[in-house]
Amino acid sequence: MLPFYEVQAKDLRVFHLVARQLTFPAHLHRNIEILYVFSGVQYLEIEGKAYAVHAGEGAIIFPDMVHRYYKQGEQPADAVLILCNPQLLGGVFPDFEKFQPLTPYLPNEKIPEEAVYALKHIKKKDAFAVKLGWIYVIMSHLLPHMELRQRKRIPVPDMSKKMIEYVADHFTEPITLDSLRG
Question: Which of 27, 49, 68, 117 is the most exposed, fewest CB within 10 Å of its CB?
């Protein structure tokens, strides 16, 4: 199955997964996605590489990385999943569109207790400013443990790819043939 482009309606969303493994087909989006597993195991594939994320481990998926979640077995998982528009973090962290991690997976020993504290305390019902504050704490403690590399952006002559990128950048604006031609 080909990945699809997911347009996020909100700039910041928090999901608490209780006693279930998440399943979601291959997709990509402009947001940063943070997964942390409290208990059990969650399976995911990022850029074609499979990961089993166990209790105390996590992953940070950068913008435009193809990823999917899948079940394997019946072991339940308790986890938190956070989606955040990288523009909310601008100026403080690296440009998430220009860099990507060598590995998005974070083993237990690379997740400081301050980040775990924030991951346990961020709530869906929190005010936007409170959630954003927790995101800053989480990213401030996790990013130093990730090796980043310059993202390779290869020009693609494929018209479908150009249209998807255009729609992602301008989805709130009216589309005309003249604007697509440029």
Answer: 49
